[in-house]
Amino acid sequence: MCQYCGCRDMPLLRDYTAEHERAVNLGGDAVRAMDAGDLARAAGLARALADELRTHWQGEENGLFAELLASDDMFADYIAPLVAEHRDLDAFLRTMDFSAPADRESFRGAVFDLHEHIAKEEDALFPASVTTLDGDQWDAAIAAWQRAHPGERMLGS
Predict the structure, then answer these.
(1) Spatial distance between the Cα atoms of 45 and 24, rounded to a whole number of angstroms
(2) Count of domains in the chain?
(3) CATH number, domain with residue 135
(4) What is the pLDDT of residues 100-156, one digit of tens each?
(5) Distance from C-alpha of 99 to C-alpha of 43, rounded to nearest angstrom
């Protein structure tokens, strides 16, 4: 993510970025385990990745995305494909089987695609949110994060 717009200074965006980093690390670790032939470890890491992403997506879609869509419908054409990518990756992670060579290669591609997906959010949508959302909208987006992460606290709070 760029450093000029202040995204990482916003508590919600800082937490989403940290979740992105955890997801990338889990995916990379799963690919490395897969390449080392440790398919059981790869499968466990993929389950942890799926859990991380599902919580992340719930907060993101019900909070930040919803508030951006409510503020200006120009975001719809940008957000709809991101949500579709969430659904596609979730469906794949629910059904994939590391014992199947085709699924292993698809998983490798999905982890690569996740990097591109995250860049779309961090390099465009997050900076746009800084200049678009007002205080009440940030409060609503944070409340959605909290609902998606019951019992957790935001970083630095």
Answers:
(1) 11
(2) 1
(3) 1.20.120
(4) 999 999 999 999 999 999 999 999 999 999 999 999 999 999 999 999 999 998 886
(5) 9
